[in-house]
UniProtKB/TrEMBL annotation:
<comment type="similarity">
    <text>Belongs to the Gfo/Idh/MocA family.</text>
</comment>
<protein>
    <recommendedName>
        <fullName>Gfo/Idh/MocA-like oxidoreductase N-terminal domain-containing protein</fullName>
    </recommendedName>
</protein>
<feature type="domain" description="Gfo/Idh/MocA-like oxidoreductase N-terminal">
    <location>
        <begin position="6"/>
        <end position="125"/>
    </location>
</feature>
<dbReference type="Pfam" id="PF22725">
    <property type="entry name" value="GFO_IDH_MocA_C3"/>
</dbReference>
<dbReference type="Pfam" id="PF01408">
    <property type="entry name" value="GFO_IDH_MocA"/>
</dbReference>
<dbReference type="InterPro" id="IPR000683">
    <property type="entry name" value="Gfo/Idh/MocA-like_OxRdtase_N"/>
</dbReference>
<dbReference type="InterPro" id="IPR036291">
    <property type="entry name" value="NAD(P)-bd_dom_sf"/>
</dbReference>
<dbReference type="GO" id="GO:0000166">
    <property type="term" value="F:nucleotide binding"/>
</dbReference>
<feature type="domain" description="GFO/IDH/MocA-like oxidoreductase">
    <location>
        <begin position="138"/>
        <end position="261"/>
    </location>
</feature>
<dbReference type="InterPro" id="IPR055170">
    <property type="entry name" value="GFO_IDH_MocA-like_dom"/>
</dbReference>
Length: 360
């Protein structure tokens, strides 16, 4: 089976594991081999509720998935506070690691994970799906067009959704011992990732949270804003707001000296089969400033597979390269996660210190 599909094991039955089961089924060269939960009953009821094939091995512990010699790669949709323990354990067992975002509680924990992956020669990737949508590649062509787009000047992003009341009582994402980063980790991760993407993964020189932080009674951030600066004189700036307290919105605006790009559904496209953005090159105000000289151009990018299946496909093809052809793991995915985590840490530090400017 050395050249067969990549056999995934899923560790944990979080809601998002349902989406990833479907993605693994849709992606060529990937198959779901095993599912582990804290109890065999939970694993069985997840398998039944999601119509998993009887061929999927069900385990009543996370460790059993790692001990299954047929598992090539694991997907870890666990609470962030458990990432380091289980991702490191998976890497040490020679399993490739696809880790849900936010990648870790902080960069020190992420470094332990990345070091374990590097030491075992396994692929690491975090679960940021939008990076795999063909829309993202199309937007890259535009923002790197020096003539039509110009120099990067400003980026803005909001990432929010208003969950139901139970979320605030039960969800792991608002519990300090499970997901201490709250909305910053769950949603701010997308904004920060989008900024780094737009800036060609150049780290900002400084960041500052803004004084609009809302926390729950346990101190977990439910909504916050921050600004990131690049350059000695802060020539390029990015601001974001992330929140569990407002209507679903996932806007990104990337503004260059001669063009601007806008979209409204960065992390989860409004429709599965295609996604769009608007690009406005070289607009001026018309005479009397009663309109613009150029209308935004709507760019529609179809996709045959949903972005999460494209993520699985990309990850599986890297794993196949390592497993079948002796390739080395693709390091760019480690670096992208690490930079996102470093900026996230700096924003967290700024929030905790009363919105001071934090230099990176
Ligand atoms: C700005 O964009 C417009 C439209 O694409 C183009 O005609 C113009 O040459 C660009 N200006 C610069 C300075 O590159
Ligand atoms: C699937 O795997 C086969 C054999 O390893 C390879 O030739 C093919 O390109 C892979 N397909 C995709 C979509 O990655």
């Amino acid at each position: 089976m050395a050249d067969g599909p990549v056999r995934f094991g899923i560790i944990g039955c979080a809601t998002i594991a349902r989406k990833l089961c479907r993605a693994i089924a849709l992606a060529p060269n990937a198959t779901l081999h095993a599912l582990g939960s804290r109890s065999i009953e939970k694993a069985r009821s997840f398998a039944a509720a999601n119509g998993l094939s009887g061929a999927v091995k069900l385990y009543g512990s996370y460790g059993d998935v790692l001990d299954d010699p047929l598992v090539d790669a694991v997907y870890l949709p666990l609470p962030t506070s458990l990432h380091a323990t289980w991702a490191v354990a998976a890497a040490r067992k020679g399993k490739h690691v696809l880790l849900e975002k936010p990648a870790a509680v902080d960069a020190a924990e992420l470094d332990r994970i990345l070091e374990a992956c590097e030491a075992s020669g396994v692929q690491f990737m975090d679960g940021t799906m939008w990076l795999h949508h063909p829309r993202t590649a199309k937007m890259r062509e535009i923002v790197s067009d020096r003539g039509r787009f110009g120099e990067l000047k400003s980026i803005n992003s909001i990432s929010m959704f208003a969950p139901n009341r139970e979320f605030f009582e039960d969800n792991i994402r608002v519990k300090p011992d499970l997901d201490s980063l709250g909305a910053l980790g769950d949603l701010g991760w997308y904004c920060i990732g989008a900024f780094l993407w737009a800036a060609g993964y150049r780290l900002p020189s400084a960041v500052s949270a803004l004084p609009d932080v809302t926390r729950n009674s346990a101190g977990v951030v439910l909504s916050c804003s921050a600004v990131l600066y690049w350059g000695l004189a802060h020539e390029t700036a990015a601001t974001f707001h992330c929140s569990f307290l407002a209507h679903v919105s996932m806007d990104l605006a990337v503004v260059g000296s001669n063009g601007s790009l806008h979209l409204k559904d960065l992390a989860i496209p409004i429709e599965e089969g295609s996604a769009s953005f608007e690009f406005t090159p070289g607009a001026k105000f018309v005479d009397l400033h009663i309109g613009w000289s150029v209308k935004p151009e709507k760019v529609l990018v179809p996709t045959e597979l949903p972005q999460e299946a494209l993520m699985i496909q990309e990850f599986a093809s890297l794993v196949q390269g390592i497993r079948n052809s002796g390739c080395s793991p693709e390091r760019k995915w480690l670096e992208m996660s690490r930079k996102t985590q470093l900026v996230l840490d700096a924003v967290k530090k700024s929030i905790d210190a009363g919105c001071i400017l934090v230099h990176l």
